[in-house]
Protein backbone atom coordinates (compact mmCIF):
# COMPACT_ATOMS: atom_id res chain seq x y z
CA UNK A 1 0.00 0.00 0.00
CA UNK A 2 1.38 3.40 -1.00
CA UNK A 3 2.21 5.67 1.90
CA UNK A 4 -0.45 8.21 2.82
CA UNK A 5 1.93 10.62 4.49
CA UNK A 6 4.56 12.79 2.85
CA UNK A 7 7.68 14.26 4.45
CA UNK A 8 6.44 17.86 4.37
CA UNK A 9 3.13 16.99 6.12
CA UNK A 10 4.99 14.97 8.69
CA UNK A 11 7.44 17.78 9.43
CA UNK A 12 4.60 20.30 9.97
CA UNK A 13 2.17 18.12 11.91
CA UNK A 14 1.82 19.25 15.55
CA UNK A 15 -1.87 18.62 16.19
CA UNK A 16 -2.29 15.73 18.69
CA UNK A 17 -3.55 12.51 17.08
CA UNK A 18 -2.58 9.28 15.33
CA UNK A 19 -1.86 9.68 11.62
CA UNK A 20 -1.75 6.44 9.53
CA UNK A 21 0.74 5.94 6.73
CA UNK A 22 -0.43 2.43 5.85
CA UNK A 23 0.37 -1.20 6.66
CA UNK A 24 0.26 -0.44 10.39
CA UNK A 25 2.61 2.55 10.46
CA UNK A 26 1.42 5.60 12.47
CA UNK A 27 2.79 8.97 13.40
CA UNK A 28 1.63 9.51 16.98
CA UNK A 29 1.57 13.18 17.92
CA UNK A 30 1.10 14.24 21.56
CA UNK A 31 2.38 17.78 21.02
CA UNK A 32 4.97 19.84 19.15
CA UNK A 33 7.76 18.21 21.16
CA UNK A 34 6.36 14.67 21.28
CA UNK A 35 6.05 13.04 17.85
CA UNK A 36 6.85 9.34 17.52
CA UNK A 37 6.52 6.49 15.04
CA UNK A 38 4.61 3.37 16.02
CA UNK A 39 3.67 0.08 14.37
CA UNK A 40 0.18 -1.24 15.09
CA UNK A 41 -0.57 -4.98 14.92
CA UNK A 42 -2.75 -7.67 16.53
CA UNK A 43 -1.86 -10.88 18.36
CA UNK A 44 -4.67 -13.33 19.10
CA UNK A 45 -7.19 -10.54 18.72
CA UNK A 46 -5.30 -8.13 20.99
CA UNK A 47 -4.04 -4.77 19.71
CA UNK A 48 -0.35 -3.99 20.08
CA UNK A 49 1.62 -0.76 19.51
CA UNK A 50 5.34 -1.18 18.84
CA UNK A 51 7.46 1.98 19.04
CA UNK A 52 9.81 2.70 16.09
CA UNK A 53 11.48 5.82 17.41
CA UNK A 54 11.08 9.60 17.61
CA UNK A 55 10.47 11.76 14.53
CA UNK A 56 13.52 13.75 15.62
CA UNK A 57 15.68 10.66 15.02
CA UNK A 58 13.77 8.60 12.43
CA UNK A 59 12.63 9.96 9.05
CA UNK A 60 9.46 8.82 7.27
CA UNK A 61 11.52 6.66 4.93
CA UNK A 62 13.37 5.01 7.84
CA UNK A 63 10.12 4.49 9.71
CA UNK A 64 8.67 2.58 6.74
CA UNK A 65 11.78 0.34 6.64
CA UNK A 66 11.42 -0.36 10.36
CA UNK A 67 7.70 -1.04 9.89
CA UNK A 68 8.43 -3.62 7.17
CA UNK A 69 10.99 -5.39 9.38
CA UNK A 70 8.51 -5.51 12.23
CA UNK A 71 5.79 -6.89 9.96
CA UNK A 72 8.07 -9.75 8.92
CA UNK A 73 8.58 -10.73 12.55
CA UNK A 74 4.87 -10.57 13.33
CA UNK A 75 4.09 -12.74 10.30
CA UNK A 76 6.66 -15.24 11.61
CA UNK A 77 4.65 -15.48 14.84
CA UNK A 78 6.72 -13.15 17.01
CA UNK A 79 4.93 -10.86 19.44
CA UNK A 80 7.54 -8.10 19.17
CA UNK A 81 6.10 -6.00 22.02
CA UNK A 82 6.24 -8.98 24.41
CA UNK A 83 9.68 -9.96 23.11
CA UNK A 84 10.99 -6.46 23.83
CA UNK A 85 9.40 -6.50 27.29
CA UNK A 86 10.91 -9.93 28.07
CA UNK A 87 14.35 -8.83 26.92
CA UNK A 88 14.12 -5.79 29.18
CA UNK A 89 13.10 -7.94 32.17
CA UNK A 90 15.88 -10.45 31.49
CA UNK A 91 18.43 -7.64 31.33
CA UNK A 92 17.12 -6.29 34.63
CA UNK A 93 17.28 -9.73 36.25
CA UNK A 94 20.80 -10.27 34.93
CA UNK A 95 21.87 -6.94 36.38
CA UNK A 96 20.35 -7.90 39.74
CA UNK A 97 22.19 -11.23 39.71
CA UNK A 98 25.43 -9.44 38.87
CA UNK A 99 25.03 -7.44 42.08
CA UNK A 100 24.60 -10.55 44.29
CA UNK A 101 27.66 -11.60 46.33
CA UNK A 102 29.45 -14.88 45.73
CA UNK A 103 29.86 -17.50 48.45
CA UNK A 104 33.42 -16.31 49.02
CA UNK A 105 32.25 -12.73 49.50
CA UNK A 106 29.52 -13.88 51.90
CA UNK A 107 32.02 -15.96 53.87
CA UNK A 108 34.53 -13.12 54.09
CA UNK A 109 31.79 -10.80 55.36
CA UNK A 110 30.71 -13.36 57.99
CA UNK A 111 34.32 -13.79 59.15
CA UNK A 112 34.77 -10.02 59.39
CA UNK A 113 31.55 -9.61 61.41
CA UNK A 114 32.56 -12.31 63.91
CA UNK A 115 36.31 -11.69 64.07
CA UNK A 116 36.20 -9.71 67.30
CA UNK A 117 34.25 -12.46 69.11
CA UNK A 118 36.46 -15.37 68.03
CA UNK A 119 39.47 -16.96 69.68
CA UNK A 120 42.84 -17.05 67.94
CA UNK A 121 42.10 -20.64 66.95
CA UNK A 122 38.86 -19.71 65.17
CA UNK A 123 40.51 -16.72 63.51
CA UNK A 124 43.13 -19.01 62.04
CA UNK A 125 40.92 -21.95 61.10
CA UNK A 126 37.89 -20.26 59.49
CA UNK A 127 39.68 -18.42 56.66
CA UNK A 128 42.29 -21.11 56.02
CA UNK A 129 39.86 -24.05 55.92
CA UNK A 130 37.42 -22.31 53.57
CA UNK A 131 40.26 -21.06 51.38
CA UNK A 132 41.70 -24.54 51.04
CA UNK A 133 38.62 -26.72 50.82
CA UNK A 134 35.55 -24.63 49.92
CA UNK A 135 36.52 -21.71 47.67
CA UNK A 136 38.01 -23.80 44.82
CA UNK A 137 34.61 -25.47 44.29
CA UNK A 138 31.96 -22.95 45.43
CA UNK A 139 33.81 -19.71 46.10
CA UNK A 140 32.73 -18.17 42.78
CA UNK A 141 29.11 -19.38 42.99
CA UNK A 142 26.10 -17.39 44.18
CA UNK A 143 24.42 -18.80 47.30
CA UNK A 144 21.36 -19.78 45.25
CA UNK A 145 23.49 -21.71 42.75
CA UNK A 146 25.17 -24.01 45.28
CA UNK A 147 23.91 -27.60 45.13
CA UNK A 148 24.44 -30.62 47.41
CA UNK A 149 26.56 -32.11 44.61
CA UNK A 150 29.02 -29.24 45.06
CA UNK A 151 29.26 -30.00 48.77
CA UNK A 152 29.83 -33.68 48.00
CA UNK A 153 32.54 -32.77 45.51
CA UNK A 154 34.56 -30.75 48.02
CA UNK A 155 34.02 -33.07 51.01
CA UNK A 156 34.61 -36.41 49.29
CA UNK A 157 38.45 -36.20 49.17
CA UNK A 158 38.78 -35.40 52.90
CA UNK A 159 35.74 -37.11 54.41
CA UNK A 160 37.68 -40.15 55.67
CA UNK A 161 41.30 -39.01 55.82
CA UNK A 162 40.54 -35.68 57.53
CA UNK A 163 37.22 -36.41 59.20
CA UNK A 164 37.27 -33.65 61.81
CA UNK A 165 38.36 -31.06 59.24
CA UNK A 166 35.63 -32.21 56.86
CA UNK A 167 32.99 -31.90 59.60
CA UNK A 168 34.08 -28.38 60.43
CA UNK A 169 34.28 -27.26 56.81
CA UNK A 170 30.78 -28.58 56.10
CA UNK A 171 29.43 -26.87 59.21
CA UNK A 172 31.06 -23.57 58.30
CA UNK A 173 29.64 -23.68 54.78
CA UNK A 174 26.18 -24.47 56.18
CA UNK A 175 26.45 -21.49 58.54
CA UNK A 176 27.49 -19.03 55.82
CA UNK A 177 24.70 -20.17 53.50
CA UNK A 178 22.06 -20.00 56.26
CA UNK A 179 23.21 -16.47 57.08
CA UNK A 180 22.51 -15.33 53.51
CA UNK A 181 19.05 -16.70 52.68
CA UNK A 182 15.57 -15.28 53.19
CA UNK A 183 14.30 -16.25 56.64
CA UNK A 184 10.75 -16.50 55.23
CA UNK A 185 11.69 -18.88 52.41
CA UNK A 186 9.96 -22.02 53.70
CA UNK A 187 10.99 -24.02 50.64
CA UNK A 188 14.73 -23.41 51.07
CA UNK A 189 16.88 -26.37 52.02
CA UNK A 190 20.50 -25.75 52.90
CA UNK A 191 22.64 -27.68 50.37
CA UNK A 192 25.38 -28.13 52.99
CA UNK A 193 23.05 -29.85 55.46
CA UNK A 194 24.23 -33.37 56.23
CA UNK A 195 21.17 -35.08 54.82
CA UNK A 196 20.77 -38.81 54.47
CA UNK A 197 21.36 -38.49 50.73
CA UNK A 198 24.68 -36.71 51.24
CA UNK A 199 25.75 -39.06 54.01
CA UNK A 200 25.04 -42.12 51.84
CA UNK A 201 26.99 -40.68 48.90
CA UNK A 202 30.08 -39.84 50.94
CA UNK A 203 32.65 -42.59 51.67
CA UNK A 204 31.99 -44.73 54.72
CA UNK A 205 34.12 -43.81 57.70
CA UNK A 206 35.61 -46.54 59.89
CA UNK A 207 33.99 -46.97 63.27
CA UNK A 208 35.58 -44.76 65.88
CA UNK A 209 36.77 -45.97 69.23
CA UNK A 210 35.94 -43.59 72.04
CA UNK A 211 38.92 -41.55 73.14
CA UNK A 212 39.24 -39.88 76.51
CA UNK A 213 41.49 -37.04 77.54
CA UNK A 214 44.46 -38.65 79.33
CA UNK A 215 44.22 -37.88 83.03
CA UNK A 216 46.15 -38.69 86.17
CA UNK A 217 44.48 -41.17 88.50
CA UNK A 218 42.88 -39.03 91.19
CA UNK A 219 44.93 -40.90 93.82
CA UNK A 220 48.07 -39.31 92.33
CA UNK A 221 46.63 -35.79 92.33
CA UNK A 222 48.24 -34.73 95.62
CA UNK A 223 51.71 -35.82 94.48
CA UNK A 224 51.23 -33.99 91.21
CA UNK A 225 50.14 -30.77 92.96
CA UNK A 226 53.23 -30.96 95.19
CA UNK A 227 55.40 -31.05 92.06
CA UNK A 228 53.38 -28.30 90.36
CA UNK A 229 53.84 -26.02 93.39
CA UNK A 230 57.57 -26.14 92.73
CA UNK A 231 57.18 -25.05 89.10
CA UNK A 232 57.86 -21.38 88.47
CA UNK A 233 56.13 -19.01 86.08
CA UNK A 234 52.73 -17.61 85.22
CA UNK A 235 51.70 -20.63 83.14
CA UNK A 236 52.30 -22.94 86.12
CA UNK A 237 50.18 -20.66 88.32
CA UNK A 238 47.44 -20.69 85.66
CA UNK A 239 47.51 -24.49 85.66
CA UNK A 240 47.18 -24.54 89.47
CA UNK A 241 44.18 -22.21 89.23
CA UNK A 242 42.63 -24.33 86.46
CA UNK A 243 42.91 -27.51 88.52
CA UNK A 244 41.54 -25.84 91.65
CA UNK A 245 38.54 -24.34 89.80
CA UNK A 246 38.01 -27.17 87.26
CA UNK A 247 37.66 -24.53 84.53
CA UNK A 248 38.47 -24.89 80.85
CA UNK A 249 41.72 -23.60 79.35
CA UNK A 250 40.28 -20.58 77.52
CA UNK A 251 38.26 -19.60 80.60
CA UNK A 252 41.42 -19.42 82.74
CA UNK A 253 43.76 -17.84 80.19
CA UNK A 254 41.17 -15.14 79.44
CA UNK A 255 40.40 -14.46 83.12
CA UNK A 256 40.47 -10.78 84.11
CA UNK A 257 40.74 -9.13 87.50
CA UNK A 258 37.40 -7.43 86.92
CA UNK A 259 35.74 -10.88 87.04
CA UNK A 260 36.88 -11.58 90.61
CA UNK A 261 34.47 -10.80 93.45
CA UNK A 262 37.10 -10.82 96.19
CA UNK A 263 34.79 -10.20 99.21
CA UNK A 264 32.64 -13.20 98.28
CA UNK A 265 35.52 -15.30 96.85
CA UNK A 266 33.71 -15.83 93.54
CA UNK A 267 35.02 -15.77 89.99
CA UNK A 268 32.31 -14.71 87.53
CA UNK A 269 33.11 -15.99 84.04
CA UNK A 270 31.15 -14.20 81.26
CA UNK A 271 29.14 -16.31 78.83
CA UNK A 272 31.27 -15.12 75.91
CA UNK A 273 34.07 -17.37 77.19
CA UNK A 274 31.90 -20.29 78.29
CA UNK A 275 31.29 -23.31 76.09
CA UNK A 276 27.53 -23.14 76.67
CA UNK A 277 27.44 -19.37 76.19
CA UNK A 278 26.02 -18.68 79.66
CA UNK A 279 27.56 -16.75 82.57
CA UNK A 280 29.13 -19.04 85.15
CA UNK A 281 30.08 -18.32 88.79
CA UNK A 282 32.95 -20.28 90.38
CA UNK A 283 33.27 -20.37 94.20
CA UNK A 284 36.97 -20.02 95.03
CA UNK A 285 38.63 -22.26 97.61
CA UNK A 286 41.41 -21.00 99.86
CA UNK A 287 44.23 -22.27 97.62
CA UNK A 288 42.57 -20.72 94.55
CA UNK A 289 42.43 -17.36 96.31
CA UNK A 290 46.07 -17.82 97.31
CA UNK A 291 47.03 -18.23 93.64
CA UNK A 292 45.22 -14.99 92.82
CA UNK A 293 46.99 -13.18 95.66
CA UNK A 294 50.35 -14.34 94.32
CA UNK A 295 49.48 -13.14 90.82
CA UNK A 296 48.11 -9.79 92.01
CA UNK A 297 51.45 -8.72 93.46
CA UNK A 298 52.98 -6.32 90.94
CA UNK A 299 50.48 -7.12 88.17
CA UNK A 300 49.97 -4.31 85.64
CA UNK A 301 47.72 -6.25 83.26
CA UNK A 302 43.95 -6.62 83.07
CA UNK A 303 44.56 -10.35 82.66
CA UNK A 304 45.16 -12.44 85.77
CA UNK A 305 47.64 -14.68 83.94
CA UNK A 306 49.25 -12.36 81.37
CA UNK A 307 51.85 -13.23 78.76
CA UNK A 308 55.01 -11.14 78.48
CA UNK A 309 53.25 -8.63 76.21
CA UNK A 310 50.45 -8.10 78.72
CA UNK A 311 47.90 -10.08 76.70
CA UNK A 312 46.59 -13.60 77.36
CA UNK A 313 48.82 -16.67 77.14
CA UNK A 314 48.63 -19.09 74.24
CA UNK A 315 46.43 -22.13 74.87
CA UNK A 316 49.62 -24.24 74.62
CA UNK A 317 51.24 -22.59 77.66
CA UNK A 318 49.88 -24.98 80.30
CA UNK A 319 50.56 -28.00 78.11
CA UNK A 320 54.18 -26.82 77.97
CA UNK A 321 54.25 -26.84 81.78
CA UNK A 322 53.15 -30.48 81.79
CA UNK A 323 55.89 -31.35 79.31
CA UNK A 324 58.53 -29.67 81.46
CA UNK A 325 57.25 -31.77 84.38
CA UNK A 326 57.65 -34.91 82.24
CA UNK A 327 53.88 -35.46 82.29
CA UNK A 328 53.51 -35.71 78.53
CA UNK A 329 50.83 -38.40 78.86
CA UNK A 330 48.49 -35.96 80.62
CA UNK A 331 46.31 -33.31 78.97
CA UNK A 332 45.11 -30.12 80.61
CA UNK A 333 41.47 -30.99 79.95
CA UNK A 334 42.02 -34.37 81.59
CA UNK A 335 41.95 -32.76 85.04
CA UNK A 336 38.22 -32.15 84.61
CA UNK A 337 37.72 -35.88 84.01
CA UNK A 338 39.84 -36.65 87.07
CA UNK A 339 37.69 -34.33 89.17
CA UNK A 340 34.46 -35.91 87.90
CA UNK A 341 35.72 -39.39 88.75
CA UNK A 342 36.83 -38.30 92.23
CA UNK A 343 33.43 -36.72 92.99
CA UNK A 344 31.59 -39.84 91.88
CA UNK A 345 33.78 -42.41 93.63
CA UNK A 346 34.99 -40.59 96.73
CA UNK A 347 32.19 -38.20 97.78
CA UNK A 348 28.48 -38.13 98.42
CA UNK A 349 27.78 -34.98 96.39
CA UNK A 350 24.76 -35.27 94.02
CA UNK A 351 25.36 -35.41 90.28
CA UNK A 352 23.76 -31.99 89.89
CA UNK A 353 26.39 -30.33 92.08
CA UNK A 354 29.21 -32.00 90.15
CA UNK A 355 27.70 -31.04 86.79
CA UNK A 356 27.17 -27.45 87.94
CA UNK A 357 30.81 -27.26 89.01
CA UNK A 358 31.88 -28.49 85.58
CA UNK A 359 29.49 -26.03 83.86
CA UNK A 360 27.89 -28.87 81.95
CA UNK A 361 24.51 -28.44 80.32
CA UNK A 362 21.79 -31.03 80.88
CA UNK A 363 20.64 -32.76 77.71
CA UNK A 364 17.23 -33.32 79.27
CA UNK A 365 15.42 -29.95 79.15
CA UNK A 366 13.16 -30.90 82.06
CA UNK A 367 16.14 -31.73 84.25
CA UNK A 368 17.87 -28.55 83.11
CA UNK A 369 14.89 -26.46 84.17
CA UNK A 370 14.76 -28.18 87.56
CA UNK A 371 18.51 -27.85 88.14
CA UNK A 372 18.84 -24.28 86.88
CA UNK A 373 20.21 -22.86 90.17
CA UNK A 374 23.97 -22.49 90.44
CA UNK A 375 24.16 -24.27 93.87
CA UNK A 376 26.93 -21.92 94.92
CA UNK A 377 27.14 -22.93 98.58
CA UNK A 378 27.08 -26.66 97.84
CA UNK A 379 29.70 -26.13 95.17
CA UNK A 380 31.79 -24.04 97.57
CA UNK A 381 31.90 -27.00 99.94
CA UNK A 382 32.74 -29.32 97.04
CA UNK A 383 35.60 -27.12 95.81
CA UNK A 384 36.97 -26.86 99.34
CA UNK A 385 36.94 -30.67 99.64
CA UNK A 386 38.61 -30.91 96.24
CA UNK A 387 41.38 -28.53 97.38
CA UNK A 388 41.86 -30.58 100.55
CA UNK A 389 42.24 -33.69 98.41
CA UNK A 390 44.78 -32.00 96.13
CA UNK A 391 46.91 -30.88 99.06
CA UNK A 392 46.26 -33.91 101.27
CA UNK A 393 49.87 -35.05 101.61
CA UNK A 394 51.58 -31.66 101.95
CA UNK A 395 52.91 -30.56 105.28
CA UNK A 396 52.48 -26.92 104.32
CA UNK A 397 48.87 -27.27 103.32
CA UNK A 398 47.88 -24.54 105.77
CA UNK A 399 50.14 -22.14 103.92
CA UNK A 400 47.83 -22.42 100.98
CA UNK A 401 44.72 -22.02 103.18
CA UNK A 402 43.30 -25.24 101.81
CA UNK A 403 40.84 -25.54 104.62
Q: What gyration radius follows from the Cα positions, in whole Å?
A: 38 Å
N-C termini distance: 115 Å
Name the CATH architecture of the largest domain.
Orthogonal Bundle
Class by SSE composition: alpha+beta
The top level CATH class name of the largest domain: Mainly Alpha
Largest sheet: 4 strands, antiparallel
* CATH topological fold name of the largest domain: hpI Integrase, Chain A
CATH superfamily of the largest domain: Intergrase catalytic core
Secondary-structure element series = HEEEEHHHHHHHHHHEEEHHHHHH
> What's the total count of β strands?
7
Compute the number of helices.
Answer: 17
User: Mean pLDDT score, rounded?
Assistant: 85
Task: Give the total of domains.
Answer: 3
Give me the side-by-side strand order of the main sheet.
1-2-3-4
**Low-confidence parts lasting 5 or more residues at pLDDT below 50?**
363-373, 395-403
Backbone shape:
elongated
Helix content: 40-55%
Keywords: DNA integration, DNA recombination, DNA-binding
Domain Tyr recombinase: 211-383
InterPro entries: CB (IPR044068), DNA_brk_join_enz (IPR011010), Integrase-like_cat_sf (IPR013762), Integrase_catalytic (IPR002104), Integrase_DNA-bd_sf (IPR038488), Integrase_DNA_bind_dom (IPR025166), Integrase_recombinase_N (IPR010998), Phage_int_M (IPR053876)
Pfam families: Arm-DNA-bind_3 (PF13356), Phage_int_M (PF22022), Phage_integrase (PF00589)
